[in-house]
Amino acid sequence: MSVMQRIQSAVEAHPIVLFMKGTPEYPMCGFSSRAVETLRAAGLDDAQLHVVNVLEDPDVRANLPRFSNWPTFPQLFIHGELIGGCDITVELHESGELARMVAEVRSA
Question: PANTHER family given for it (predicted)?
Answer without folding.
Answer: GLUTAREDOXIN FAMILY MEMBER, MONOTHIOL GLUTAREDOXIN-S14, CHLOROPLASTIC
